[in-house]
Amino acid sequence: MWGYVVALSARWVVLQSLEAAVYIDGYDVIRVDDITEVWEDGAAGYIERAVAALGRPAPDVALSQTAGTADVLQVARDAADLMCVHFEKDDDAPMLVGHLVRLDETTFDLQLIDPGGVWEVDVAQIACTEVTRVEFGDRYSVALTRFGDRRPEPEGARALDSFCTDEVD
């Protein structure tokens, strides 16, 4: 993961994400406890010149020093229609993409959209403690917002694990 650190709290770091080393592609918000290594790129001169020429929007994300997971989700909801939510620090772990429908300090409801732009009619009920990373403002979720199906009003709510099987509660 590459990017510029643009905000920091005691538990979360916000990166303005770099795609292909030189294109700004939204934000990644990562738990501090999951960061294992940080380094400055040896090609920083090239990267800085390329990013400057290609354009780097001014960061527009802020976190309080005490920001928790619910605060991170609120920042993402305020900034974008869709967010990508991760539950594992492993890069190969699946992510969920969706619209934040409801949020409190301990849980949230996410209406999911699949890679084909098709919405679930129920929302997934998720514990804030499960979240390890949140992305928003990236080209993938922006494209789903623009070209996916129109989001229906949610009809119900289900546990997150019910979306990972063919069974419905």
Find the structural class using helix and strand composition.
alpha+beta
Percent of residues in beta strands? 35-45%
Q: Can you count the beta strands?
A: 9
What distance lies between the first and last C-alpha atoms, to the nearest angstrom? 37 Å
Q: How much helical structure, as a percent, in the residues?
A: 10-25%
Radius of gyration: 17 Å
Q: How are the strands of the biggest sheet laid out side by side?
A: 1-2-3-8-4-5-6-7-9
How would you sum up the global shape? globular
So how many helices? 3
Domain module count? 1
List the helices and strands in order: EEEHHEEEEEHE
Tell me about the largest β-sheet: 9 strands, mixed
Q: In words, what does this structure look like?
A:
This protein is of the alpha+beta class and 169 residues long. The chain has one domain. It has helices spanning 44-54, 69-79, 139-147, and strands at 3-8, 12-19, 23-31, 83-86, 95-103, 107-113, 119-127, 133-136, 156-159. It has a nine-stranded mixed sheet, with helices on both faces. It is globular, with a radius of gyration of 17 Å. The chain starts with a strand and ends in a 10-residue tail after the last strand. The model has no long low-confidence stretch (mean pLDDT 91).
